[in-house]
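Hello, quick one for you while I still have it in my head. My current little project is about how a certain protein chain folds up. You're getting the sequence in one-letter code plus the fold written as tokens. Would you mind checking whether the tokens look sensible for this chain? Here's the protein in full, and shout if anything looks odd to you:
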Amino acid sequence: MSIVVWSLLLTAVAAAAADPTPPLQVVLYYESLCPDCQAFVSGSFAEAVARRARDPERHTGALGVRHRPRRTAPAAGRFSVSTAQAECRGNKLHACGVYLAPSPAVSVDFSICLESQMAGEQCAQQTGLDWLSLTDCQLRRDTDQLMIPYRDMTDAARPEIVEVPTVSVDGRQEHQGQMLDDFLGYVCSVWQGDTPDGCPPAR
């Protein structure tokens, strides 16, 4: 099984710059070509990201790919992927998007586009990334090196990641059903500072 780890410092969705409340640390574990992952990333998660602060400096994040494979050459960090090759290529494309994106916000938008099942070249054009550079990165053997930190991050997760998508907010994985159904609502409910502009009105 291949797992993608998306680590995102979510700055209150659209919190005022004057709010001193620290950002929520959101980690999303998902895999390429996973229908449930695609539904969440392109739906509930994308909605929350779309309501982030207008100031791009207040939206930071990183995404990477984690294969849960057979490791064939530990010293070299090489992997033998045990999943379908199409999924493996998809995970690598996500990782390359992070590596080549000029900012974390662009890499997040690129990945959301991919999870919306749009063509990779179209997503590159939409987010301003160079498609030839992305495909070159995707096909290189040394791209596995980009995935190693995310493999380690997944292995270190507690509780252990056993299914995807799984979301962690500030290191906690409770309330998965609520997070997956209405991620924006969940983020707004746990935010400790002033209510962000992007949150729905309190009932």
Notes: DSSP finds eight helices and six strands in the chain. Residues 36 and 162 are 14 Å apart (CA to CA). The domain at 2-190 is CATH 3.40.30 (Glutaredoxin).
